[in-house]
Automatic annotation (TrEMBL):
Nucleotide-binding found in the keyword field: yes
Pfam families assigned to the protein according to its UniProt record, in alphabetical order: MMR_HSR1 (PF01926), MnmE_helical (PF12631), TrmE_N (PF10396)
Originating organism: Paenibacillus plantiphilus
Binding site for K(+): 232, 251, 253, 256
Cofactor: K(+)
SUPFAM superfamilies xrefs: P-loop containing nucleoside triphosphate hydrolases (SSF52540), TrmE connector domain (SSF116878)
Record flagged with keyword Hydrolase: yes
Gene designation per UniProt: mnmE
Family named by the database record: Belongs to the TRAFAC class TrmE-Era-EngA-EngB-Septin-like GTPase superfamily. TrmE GTPase family.
Name of this protein: tRNA modification GTPase MnmE
PROSITE patterns: G_TRME
Chain residues that bind (6S)-5-formyl-5,6,7,8-tetrahydrofolate: 23, 86, 126, 460
Amino-acid positions noted as binding Mg(2+) in the UniProt annotation, renumbered to this chain: 236, 257
TrmE-type G domain sequence ranges: 222-381
Length: 460
């Protein structure tokens, strides 16, 4: 699966900026860069992890293409564990594009595939698969807490636990093998008891990891949160207040929002994917009706629903219909416009609603938002995010494989209790060991690797 050619790609976001970086990795990275780099220093003999000032020059005409800083990182002390050269150009589309096109011109360097630098780091043994997958989580983090969780995984917190667990299982497999090879020295009852104990201990470790899966997945992907309600109750104003920016148009005219507006925020360290929906009501307006249908679709996809009601008026029939539709869903009712006289009948509301909580707020005065944050934290994290050295499991692939490994160990325990021969029990234990190995990439197919790394951007 390992390529030995030299690759290059832009590693910074395309657009205007202070600098842009082109990363080159492979056995010929330094010699290829030397063809175009003109400087007082000779990079062919330069030490690793040194920076050199100079110009990129087109050998065909001797014209200086760009003024750059060139960084050399010789393998295995680099991200890919290969020779790596990074060219820091002026920021901007034209400058970085001209340099990259020159590097690719002769065909001795090819453009990197998505995630190929990280893939090479994995294939060269610098990182395992859980660490490689954490790289994309670092890039996509929507909150400080999500970044911290991804950083721990990138540093190997999860893989260390999995490797320890696999080491204990391989010791158990070795014990079983000895008893199979020398049955005359085996006491079947003692061996079965030993297998049960070790498998149950392994299950406890896996249970501890899976316990964090719900919270980890939320930190990784965010809580899909739909803001719903009748037109003109303050949904778009709430979105703007949470985002701290005028993302949605706000007017006194009902039906202003015609489509679903999406925005990510971090609320007390919890990432929320906010969906501001069109006001849900019966309407003859064709465009508004499309917006209402999209709002209903967003409701189906949401992990959390913020139902906004106008506290300054009596409940409308549309409010009652919405409350009825949202029964058995995770709902927080927000009584907005409490800066005005409160007219809504809260006793009626409590009688018909099955909401997880009711929060009084005034979006205009930005009061009550702290209480909303506490309620959301309590719903999804039991009141507060875990602190300390807790390792979250956030990747669906990891969660699935941990679940399969746990089931294999449970099968092994049940087999010993049923008196099944230990050479058959061994199959379940080995299967658990292999499934944990697939997590960290000890046994993984090329198609799965392609699928994982295709999610990365080109320069990573």
């Amino acid at each position: 699966m390992m390529n030995v050619d030299t690759i290059a790609a832009i590693s910074t976001a395309v657009g205007e900026g202070g600098i842009a970086i082109i990363r080159v990795s492979g056995p010929e990275a330094v010699s290829e860069a030397k063809k175009y780099f003109r400087s007082k220093s000779d990079i062919a003999t330069a030490d690793s992890h040194t920076v050199h000032y100079g110009h990129i020059v087109d050998p065909a005409n001797g014209e200086a293409v760009e003024e750059i800083l060139l960084t050399i990182m010789r393998g295995p002390r680099s991200f890919t564990a290969e020779d790596v050269v990074e060219l820091s150009t002026h920021g901007g589309i034209v400058a970085v594009k001209r340099v990259l096109e020159l590097l690719l011109k002769e065909g001795t360097i090819r453009i990197a595939e998505p995630g190929e630098f990280t893939k090479r780091a994995f294939l060269n043994g610098r990182i395992d698969l859980t660490q490689a997958e954490a790289v994309i989580d670092l890039i996509r983090s929507k909150s400080d807490r999500a970044f911290s969780v991804a950083m721990k995984q990138a540093e190997g917190a999860l893989s260390r636990k999995v490797k320890t667990l696999r080491h204990e299982l391989i010791e158990l497999l070795a014990h079983i093998e000895v008893n199979i090879d020398y049955p005359e020295h085996d006491v079947t009852e003692m061996t079965s008891s030993f297998i049960r104990t070790r498998c149950q201990e392994a299950c406890s470790v896996i249970d501890g990891l899976l316990k964090t899966a719900g919270e980890g997945k939320i930190l990784r992907e965010g809580i899909v949160t739909a803001i719903v309600g009748r037109p003109n109750v303050g949904k778009s104003s709430l979105l703007n207040a949470l985002v701290q920016e005028n993302k949605a148009i706000v007017t006194d005219i009902p039906g202003t929002t015609r489509d679903v507006i999406e925005e990510y925020i971090s609320l007390g360290g919890i990432p929320l994917r906010l969906l501001d929906t069109a006001g849900i009501r019966e309407t003859s307006d064709v465009v508004e009706r499309i917006g209402v249908e999209r709002s209903r679709t967003a409701l189906e996809e949401a992990d959390l629903i913020l139902l906004v009601l106008n506290a300054n008026e009596q409940m409308h029939e549309d409010d009652r219909l919405l409350i009825e539709q949202l029964k058995d869903r995770p709902v927080i009712i927000l009584l907005n416009k409490t800066d005005l006289p409160v007219v809504i009948d809260e006793q009626e509301l409590l009688a018909i609603a099955s909401a997880d909580s009711i929060v009084r707020l005034s979006v205009l005065q930005e009061s009550g938002l702290d209480q909303l944050e506490k309620v959301i934290s309590g719903m999804f994290f039991g009141g507060e995010l875990e602190s300390g050295d807790l390792t979250y499991v956030s990747n669906v692939r990891h969660i699935t494989l941990l679940g399969h490994a746990r089931q294999s160990l449970v099968d092994a325990v049940e087999a010993t209790e049923a008196g099944i021969p230990i050479d058959i029990v061994q199959i379940d234990v080995r299967q658990a060991w292999e499934q944990l190995g697939e997590m960290i990439g000890d046994s993984v197919s090329e198609s799965l690797l392609d699928q994982i790394f295709s999610q990365f951007c080109l320069g990573k």
